[in-house]
Write a structure and sequence with these properties.
274 residues, mainly beta, Immunoglobulin-like, seven-stranded antiparallel β-sheet, seven-stranded mixed β-sheet, 49% strand, elongated
Length: 274
């Protein structure tokens, strides 16, 4: 049974969400602590720069998820897009490191170029970025044999020797993996650990649920492509007696809509799929 508590309605306020939050490491207040993570966007696709670098941070899953949306925080820059990668832990070693292709020839789980994203200033020179992935990323739950996944976020930088900083996050294990194209003392590739988290959040393909108050009615909306999900309600989260909302469903464009007239007292609502 797949159950999704999308929204808790303690008051009749308007709300919405995109999918369900799977994992997050939020930025500080104020946000900051950026570390360079970018690849020079060379139109000839032949050259790299010594300033090229990529940061990786880990996360774990207790159940299988399909990741469809990513949010991250970092500096503004003359970006033409972002590279977002997902990797397994390198099982050829007990060390904390992603299974990078340059190590054993294994490709990443996914490596996507994101050019359609939103960018919102949040203060201190840091921006909040948000994007749907071009293709969903399917991940199984972590196990003892596969204890973690890694995500990388790097700017596609159109200007030589410019950098983009991925902001520091909090709530993880205070550890990340880092690659610099020319970071070694001899000027070659350099791999290392850094004792800090990066700021990001990942979401799965669970549908969003929106609710708003219109006079004495509550109006709920969710996507029509979320087949099998039903709206449920309960008077107390201490109970397990969720009941289906039996009000008729009206299709409005690409969304389902249900009107609950004058709900008495406190009610909690969720979408659930058996």
């Amino acid at each position: 049974m797949k159950s999704l508590l999308v929204s808790i309605l303690l008051s009749f306020a308007s709300l919405a969400a995109c999918g369900a939050l799977v994992y997050s490491q939020w930025p500080g207040n104020p946000p900051g602590g950026g570390i360079p993570s970018q690849w020079w966007y060379d139109l000839t696709q032949q050259n790299n720069l010594d300033s090229d670098a990529e940061a990786y941070d880990d996360f774990t899953l207790t159940q299988a998820k399909t990741i469809t949306h990513v949010e991250w925080w970092g500096e503004a820059g003359p970006s033409v897009g972002f590279f977002i990668g997902f990797y397994k832990q390198d099982t050829n070693t007990i060390a904390y490191q992603p299974d990078l292709q340059q190590f054993h020839g294994h490709p990443p789980i996914a490596y996507e170029t994101v050019t359609n994203f939103t960018q919102t200033p949040v203060g201190n020179g840091i921006y909040h970025f948000s994007a749907d992935l071009p293709a969903p990323v399917i991940l199984t739950s972590n196990t003892t044999a596969m204890p973690r996944y890694f995500i990388s976020i790097a700017d596609s930088m159109p200007l030589a020797y410019y950098t983009w900083g991925w902001a520091q996050g909090f709530g993880g294990n205070n550890l990340m993996f880092y690659f610099q194209l020319a970071g070694s003392p001899a000027g070659g590739p350099y791999y290392t650990y850094r004792y800090a988290d990066r700021a990001f959040a990942i979401y799965d393909d669970s549908p969003w649920l929106a609710g708003c108050c219109i006079k004495t009615n509550m109006v709920f909306t969710w996507p029509t492509n979320s087949a099998g999900f039903v709206l449920q309600q309960i008077a107390s989260l201490g109970s397990t007696n969720w009941a289906n909302v039996t009000n008729s469903i009206t299709v409005m464009g690409t969304n389902n809509q249900v009107v609950v007239s004058n709900p008495a007292g406190v009610r909690f609502f969720r979408l659930m799929r058996p």
